[in-house]
Amino acid sequence: MENAARLAARIKRAKMVVYLFPLAVVAFFLLFAGFQADYLARSVIFHPPKYPLGEWKPEGVDFEEVIFTTPSGAKSFLSFSSSSSAARGLNLVAWYFPYKNGCPDAVILYSHGNASNITSFPRFAEMLRRRFRASVLVYDYRGYGKSEGSPSVKGILRDGRAAAEWLAAQEGIATADIVQWGQSLGGGVAIDLAAELGARALIVESSFTSLPDMAKSKISSLLPAKTLLREELPGILSIAKFKGPVFVSHGKADAVIPFEQGERLFKAANEPKTFFIPPSGDDYHSAPLTEEHLEKLDVFFGGLK
Fold first, then answer.
1. Global pTM value
2. What's the pLDDT tens digit per position in 68-87?
3. How many domains would you assign to the chain?
4. Which residue range forms the structural domain that includes residue 216?
């Protein structure tokens, strides 16, 4: 009887192994696929040009190079920090274009795209300062330009918040009084900052609805991206939380981020809102702003006064 009981117990355990093994394989596959999908998404999103790439001493533009600290955040398998940097945070580098002819009409925080650093924007920032009578801060995310660390979605959101807090303190205003302006990847950051901190206004150029949507468009439409990706950056949800003026622009010829994602962002935004479609020939990704585009922005900024 004792031997029979032992045999029955062994058979029961063997059956459990038979049943559980496929589940374990599936669980391992999903975990592995999740890491792979996350890695692929990051490889699509982040292309940081590091120092010394870029023109770090542009001529004919008046600005200040500033450094502030951002929380390093927890370690991840793709973003490793030393114990010392984790304790003190990471140093970020930004270019500050203060308005010097009295009180500015606007204070703009500009979050750039995934394959640029601040050296791409001195003349653009100078134009914003002059045209909109604004103080402007353009900053590099962790791992970009001279900024320390390695980029991650949670990390660049921390960087945006740190930049907003530095700019608000420098200008003597609340973070909710900043105009959040973002292009491409930076659009996702600007949307998140406006939703979480508040903003005087939100300007979004050629940005995406979420990382899973981008992964589907760039990697595979069959990928269960929402299930597998750990970091979503869901602009489509965050923009609906922001209560303030919104300006969205997206070109129909954008080969990087589908035009329909810009349309969806605009539809999800609250009023008052403006949607601008650049004219043919100037409607590709990262195209310079045309005079027509700037005139629409003139009207938009005029409505903020």
1. 0.83
2. 999 998 554 444 444 555 56
3. 1
4. 10-302
